[in-house]
Input
Amino acid sequence: MKKVNVALIGYKFMGRAHSNAWRQAASFFDVPVTPVLKVIVGRDEAGVRDAAARFGWEEHSTSWEEVVRREEIDVIDICTPGDTHLPIALAAAAAGKVVFCEKPLANNVADAERMLEAVRANNCLHMLCHNYRRVPAVALAKRLIDDGRLGEVRHYRGTYLQDWLVNPEVPRVWRLEKSKAGSGALGDILSHSADLARHLVGEITEVAGLLDTFVKARPAPEGGGLLPVEVDDAALSLVRFENGAVGTIEATRFAPGRRNYNRFEINGSRGSLAFNLERMNELELYTEEGPESGFRTILATDPTHPYMEGWWPPGHIIGYEHTFTHTVLDLLRAIAERKQPKPDFEDGVRTQKVLDAIERASDSRRWESV
Amino acid sequence: MKKVNVALIGYKFMGRAHSNAWRQAASFFDVPVTPVLKVIVGRDEAGVRDAAARFGWEEHSTSWEEVVRREEIDVIDICTPGDTHLPIALAAAAAGKVVFCEKPLANNVADAERMLEAVRANNCLHMLCHNYRRVPAVALAKRLIDDGRLGEVRHYRGTYLQDWLVNPEVPRVWRLEKSKAGSGALGDILSHSADLARHLVGEITEVAGLLDTFVKARPAPEGGGLLPVEVDDAALSLVRFENGAVGTIEATRFAPGRRNYNRFEINGSRGSLAFNLERMNELELYTEEGPESGFRTILATDPTHPYMEGWWPPGHIIGYEHTFTHTVLDLLRAIAERKQPKPDFEDGVRTQKVLDAIERASDSRRWESV
Amino acid sequence: MKKVNVALIGYKFMGRAHSNAWRQAASFFDVPVTPVLKVIVGRDEAGVRDAAARFGWEEHSTSWEEVVRREEIDVIDICTPGDTHLPIALAAAAAGKVVFCEKPLANNVADAERMLEAVRANNCLHMLCHNYRRVPAVALAKRLIDDGRLGEVRHYRGTYLQDWLVNPEVPRVWRLEKSKAGSGALGDILSHSADLARHLVGEITEVAGLLDTFVKARPAPEGGGLLPVEVDDAALSLVRFENGAVGTIEATRFAPGRRNYNRFEINGSRGSLAFNLERMNELELYTEEGPESGFRTILATDPTHPYMEGWWPPGHIIGYEHTFTHTVLDLLRAIAERKQPKPDFEDGVRTQKVLDAIERASDSRRWESV
Amino acid sequence: MKKVNVALIGYKFMGRAHSNAWRQAASFFDVPVTPVLKVIVGRDEAGVRDAAARFGWEEHSTSWEEVVRREEIDVIDICTPGDTHLPIALAAAAAGKVVFCEKPLANNVADAERMLEAVRANNCLHMLCHNYRRVPAVALAKRLIDDGRLGEVRHYRGTYLQDWLVNPEVPRVWRLEKSKAGSGALGDILSHSADLARHLVGEITEVAGLLDTFVKARPAPEGGGLLPVEVDDAALSLVRFENGAVGTIEATRFAPGRRNYNRFEINGSRGSLAFNLERMNELELYTEEGPESGFRTILATDPTHPYMEGWWPPGHIIGYEHTFTHTVLDLLRAIAERKQPKPDFEDGVRTQKVLDAIERASDSRRWESV
Output
């Protein structure tokens, strides 16, 4: 079978999740091309060497520039902080690689657009990793909507709630620096909810917004006083979709008890759907059935459910990292067929424009077009 | 024991709920004054006569004007559609009665303010019936917040979802006429969520808003073609509170499967609360408890929970109409002590101003001050 | 309309629930005969006088013997402790009254059989108040089973869990005396689960059982040392049904956090049902629907659901005492049609025989026939 | 770092789960010895060759006898059907290997005891894979019980419900043959619930039981008529524990909608716990907290929860196969410290004795000692 050689840039949280996905895809699914975990890249030599050993990469490197230039590498997988996506992606595109990039595509619209232009100009396959699209329950939701089970969609209600910043003693990490992270809850987690909104309901045309920062300064990670928090702690928006639906999308890191509560509810003319990432194996579906109507909880673990043919018997649930495995699986299929997978960099640009509009609306105190 | 003579204007949905409350309060609670169900008033003689018999009123009448003037009547309870609240309340105030009024206080801010002026000018006790404040679980939520269990409140997330208009064949009833109902989901149900927001979090200072009508015309109730729907099917808003909290408040009648889903979630610096009217005997509370932290479901049916000393042993739940009984109970206590109960007409004015600001914001496409 | 004069014996917990039912039935439903709350009976003059005033009875009395003899009384409603059911019911039957009796019918099978013989000999209408049969969600469950939606029933899994005896300082009240209560969790709450099993699945033919008492002595209610607990704290059983189904039925007063958790699950060849009294407005239903299968939560508050035509719009839930109102409603209908209602004293005898078999099986350490 | 060479016998469902565990342990945890996936064994050459490639084993073999004799192999991991555990384990013990065996240890008590004797006689480390002990939420439950948070345990309520045999067209597979599977729901799934009971509550001393087979014959897997179902479809039991607690343990493959519903509830004198495998990242805990008491849902994904330090940030859930990874992790730790891990073959014998007693009790129709 044909092999594809993968280079992974970044070896922390996302690096670990992507490594696992590349490693597991061929164990659990019939892949059309076999991924080879060639090289993992990071700035800290000791760290990346250890990661290579743990996560099963043949080699490690401290220079992404060098790795991107290597002939034998087919796929560049970008798992670094948002501010470095642009240079890596441009170089990877110039080298004609398949470019696979963690979300958010970039920290601003301009960078995202440059990345899209680059992959298009070089005719590269490109994919953005919005892994939650490939939660089986979410993929089932998509299928139900596409099959018309909800009728005409009227409402999207997305909330992505976390609580890791509630404690004011949590330090001012890089995710709270504007230059590195671009924004706070907005780019980090509202982006997920916005991507799901676009995926499941359609394009967003205009927004009203509110960004707020509750704790304005936090301890420096290395000690020695407080540093300013430069990004939003919470982001709230009202949205209008092209197809006439309306919605609210909200994200915060200040919701005690909500560890990773990425929830959406969709109401259509014929039914409703609800999903919550903390119970990611379940999809709630309502359709009208007379006196027997009610929201049903579909445990999306049957072989008839998306991606579940690869895993375990019904009722044996899967976890967070499996969503990356599904994403990598579909990327491998796209590579084999030389077809552009989704979501791609164009989705990245579009989602970035939604975030940008929310930020503008928060400043202008008006509705803004996307 | 002292008695208070009550006259009830209106005998439909709310008339039935209020009748029950007046009848049940003294059976289940130790009331300081005894309510006497004197007279029920309605325009349709046959209908109101039947209601009097069923609901236990001594008399019936077709003239509220006449009843309001009666010397022996102590309390005027207004349960008619919103456009008639003003004249009845003004007359009741002029006659020096205790004025008890169903929400919304009026269909617009100007009328609401006239009503408030009238009861103040005549030194009447006045109360607005926002019954959900007196769901035991909600009263418990209030107590927990007042006790500081949530710390500083940062987020309010209110959604009031119903589905009775999803079917486009539902006729154009009076609730869909602007002259009678004032507005749609906004005044009818978002008003509940806004009242709870004000009650539990604090005053709202500014809003962004979006009103929409999905089904623009519906069959005339008496047949013979379509009539225009003049009010909103859905109302969405972003809100800022005086104390720095932020929120979303949304109401719709187009959420299939959500029969009467009045839900809120509140996140503070020390904990979170969630409530859903469809499971109104339960309150979800999160506080930080180390490895044992989690949202707990308090079944608010113990004698230590608000109002539950009057009902059944723990675990024996109560229903919708009990909230009116609690409201009447507190009104009776206020009458006995000659103290102004809450919520009152001032709350009605303030909540109406929030609704008004949402409507203005939807038109102006800007944030609007309340 | 024809009236029926009711006498209620007992004015504590059940007396209050029955009073409310007699009072509310005609307010919320179209009753074919009108109940008149004639007289309430109790041993304590002050107590019963107060109850009469609170609960709306025309008169009170301290002699059930006298009241049972009164010509104008049509219905004798027995709400006293189990050991007194026999003499009252025999007298009421002898007097030709309609006899309505709280569960358990009696404290043992022999007494229950005498009561059944008496009402039959005197050709009286008789009804046993197992109110949970008339929870709308339970009545819906019955309808679904009768309609064949579950296919052939294989499993019944009934648990009635409470926690009011967990604290060893709770005194040795009458419910813990064998002579008054007959048994403990067995007769008080397992009887409910057994009645629902018989109602929903069919007759029970044999059982294995285990009774246990965790706290063997408790403070005397009037102080002055400990008294022995003479009844079971917990009762567990395996059961076989006539139709081939098998089941477990368990009751305990030692389940912390389970205030009134009367839950059952039924599995058939085509589907499953689950119910929990603490969320008594909900019924969970599973039927096979391919990839969209899942337990759905039916909020049994629509007008199409049993008994809900009398109450509120969809989504406005009802509470514990409403189940007594429904029971009284059906008794009134039976009286009007002169038809024997269900459950009746025969059900009482049969359920008592199940309890008796569980007790025997616990002693013999063998399976016992009912 | 020291390495241990592993040989895995069996490559189907459990073989896949164990392969994954051996592969993943060192990626996600700091293992004290490194497992080397040496050889996987199966009877079908093509099948096992493919499995070796997919699951990452260096070699494959069709002879377990040969592999067990190999000098360099340190661990024999037995994942074959129950009837073959005995010979493999005896050979592995004789060869002085670490013996790791899937549950049930054997198909009957005598075989289980021989296996235990063998590992003891040869001084081998031995471990039984009851993976559900190492669900983080279950391990947290164990910790809470050991810390006394529940007080004295009174009740265990275990139900393991599946639905894969509801359809009578499901063929008569090996799991329905007595000679291969030993028993049906009893050994396959009730054994899990019994192991958890023993782990969390204590040893079981006596039982009452009921086994039943609803569908007595099924299509032969290869076609050509019906074959008898030789094992139980459902197994129900009442149990007494050494420490005075009582319980019900039930398993069935005939509960429509329950895909893999391994649920338990434990009630103690100070609190309660509940767990359900279909939501395996959650543990429900009740402790008495006055008016704020309620079952809380602990999302057991924090780094303070057992095993979660190896995985993802809070709120990112894990799945079924992770429980095997945790089991392998603890086996590796035990190997490094040369300490006997738990559960071991002695647990296997004890659990098998419980199953045996249930079977005897079902036949004798009496309580039986374990």
The longest strand of chain D covers residues 153-161. Chain D has a mean pLDDT of 97. The CA atoms of residues 184 and 266 of chain D lie 25 Å apart. The first helix of chain D runs from residue 13 to 28.
